[in-house]
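Usage

Read records sequentially. Each one opens with the input sequence:
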Amino acid sequence: MKNILFQLLSFKTEEEVNGLLNKEKIFHDRKNWKVLGNIENNKGTIESQGINPIKALVEKITNSIDAILIKECRQKNIDPKSQHAPKSIKEALKKFFNIEDSFISLSKDSIDKLASQIYLITENFINKSANIYIIDKGEGQKPEDFKETFLSMGGNKDDIFFTHGRFGIGSFGVLANAGENGYQIILSRKFNGGKWGWTIIRKYFPEGYKHSRYEFFTFQDKIPTLEEGDLTENIKKLITYVFTNATFYDII
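and closes with the structure output:
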């Protein structure tokens, strides 16, 4: 299973992804595909979020910012949903990063440190389209929590008042702008350790249905996982390649 992920991460075109999904039998089993957001007719809801591709991409970065703020909160042993948590983004920036009114007053080192929390790089930029790979150093998610976080539609940050993306739908707008098949790879683990989880999202027209829908891959009804040792060296190689060749795919 891990070799399939590494192949997906190495691909530069939609056609390569199509080829692998057609080749590997595990992708042919309909039991391994679940409806995104657990909403059968999710196409209309998702694609209505992606009318403007730039705004859709900004939603992804906004989620990365939220993840960083939540991680900082948890590292201070504060429940993000408790009364002790910040009640606004401004309060969170002051509490977690000592930012009073603006970033202008920060030192260059402080700004660089903040900037290093999120990376966005494009690959294969042709005719106003590209592969986009986002890495953030936020809280991350356990594989068993993917379905209620990355793959849910709405509500998982309702009670966290210092985040932007509290409605949990906007970031799906990128799927409507992700080629013909809406491919997106998600790779994540919790910031304090544990297994990595991964999945691929696609737009698909199942036989017997009247419309296409967005769905994500599972294996034996679970998000595929990798042990820390399985991934570390490969990710190091990938990151080295990314930053020396400006090559990226969509990992969160």
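Summary fields computed downstream for this record:
- The chain has one domain: 2-67+119-245.
- The two ends are 19 Å apart (CA to CA).
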